[in-house]
Amino acid sequence: MSSTGAYVNRLGRFRLWRAQPSGLARPMTMLPPSGPGRMVIGSRIHGPAEIHNKMSPFLVSTGVVALAEIGDKTQLLSLVLAARFKKPVPIILGILVATLVNHGFAGAVGEWLATAISPVIMKWAVVASFLGMAIWILIPDKLDDDETTTRRKFGVFVTTVFTFFIAEMGDKTQIATVMLAARYQDFFGVVAGTTLGMMLANVPAVLVGHKFAGRLPTKAVHAVAAVIFAVLGIITLLQ
């Protein structure tokens, strides 16, 4: 090595790299030159904690709604539609469309409430709603006769969209979507999660019909969902 600090290349075609003094004027001098086999540093890497925080609204919404939907009025409607029409594909697509529209509206309402109401009032409203939902979900649900009335002239898909959307208005899972959106303020994460939860509960109901519906431990599932809602209420209260 010469007195000027330059390296003499004795390794043939392999180049040597020497770090230059870094400073504000040369912020990238500590990085090796790019090329094959060299790692370029600069893009942000999300840590496990940040990924968990981003996934929490989606995962919680999916699990809570899937459990709450077991034995719910809209799942009973899915069983009735499946038994009446015996066409699972348009029924499943109709449930998906109705859920996206309904829960999209509910999620928007939840986010609006979170911004329109003061944080203190919103916190207590969400806590009360979660605890109230924990009690409400333990009450058995029934399907009214007028909600099972279908009009064949509209076709299976349109009939499913209409009846499922109406049945979901003011239902447990719609109210839960409003609360979750207000709690997490993550519209897409919550709506995607609640929609997936609805499909996880209703698609099997459509595919198997009444065959396995009576074998589901509805009370136990609702008890688990009630505990989850109560825990969410307590967590919100303590934050």
From TrEMBL:
InterPro entries: GDT1-like. The keyword Transmembrane applies. GO terms for molecular function: metal ion transmembrane transporter activity. GO terms for cellular component: membrane. The keyword Transmembrane helix applies. Keywords: Membrane, Transmembrane, Transmembrane helix. It is found in: Membrane. The chain crosses the membrane at residues 89-109, 121-139, 151-167, 187-208, 220-238. Its main location: membrane. It is a multi-pass membrane protein. PANTHER family: TRANSMEMBRANE PROTEIN 165, TRANSMEMBRANE PROTEIN HTP-1 RELATED. Belongs to the GDT1 family. This is GDT1 family protein. It comes from Pandoraea eparura. The lineage of its organism: Bacteria, Pseudomonadati, Pseudomonadota, Betaproteobacteria, Burkholderiales.
